Amino acid sequence: MPSYKLTYFPGRGRAEIIRFVLAAGNVDYEDVRIAGDKWKEFKEKTPEGKLPIFESDGVVLSQSQAIAAYAAELGGLRGETPIDRAKAHMIVEMVTEMFEVIIKNHFEKDEAKKEEKEKEIKEKLFPAFLTNAEKFLVANGGEYFAGSKLTYADVALFNFADNLRLAGKEPFGNTPKLAALIAKVGELPGVKDWIAKRPESQF
Ligand SMILES: N[C@@H](CCC(=O)N[C@@H](CS)C(=O)NCC(=O)O)C(=O)O
What we know:
This protein has 8 helices and 4 strands, in the order βαβαββαααααα. The protein is an alpha+beta fold. Strands 2-1-3-4 form a 4-stranded mixed β-sheet, covered by helices on one side. α1 runs parallel beside α3. The protein is globular and about 45 Å long. Glutathione binds next to α3.
């Protein structure tokens, strides 16, 4: 039986997509969280001095999106054909890009810059993301982003929506296909179970 261990800080952050992909694919793993002072010492032991890392039978991987893709392979969610896998990767990159713009601005210290970017996100970047994501979903038949089965692209959208929901935002009212997909992923037993048992955290 292979052994898997995911290590991150005590939060959702860049690890939650991996946790959701493993949950959706019913893959067992150890969920390790490094808190406070322990990080300084542990940092030395990581490939890039950053988290998350994922250990697969002793092999250590870093970079959250690469780990999410590997987690998807483990759970049968990577996509069935080369073009499905390419489409899934494309959507994951698209979601991650949007997510990172929002997170970066959340931590912006310059109030004027923050306000300006907030406006750009609200009026331009996020509406474009929604339109494009809905368009990709419709172009693939409207059920899933890649092929005719769930992939980690669908889970990536769900993770993004989950973070928005926890921040009090539910912006998928005008994109019915995205809204239906998010609801469908949220009904997966592994995903429901993870949401019910995961530790609470601000981020
Ligand atoms: N591109 C990397 C970024 C990893 C990253 O920046 N991790 C942050 C936490 S979200 C970290 O480890 N920060 C602690 C540090 O740099 O000491 C990924 O997606 O995994």
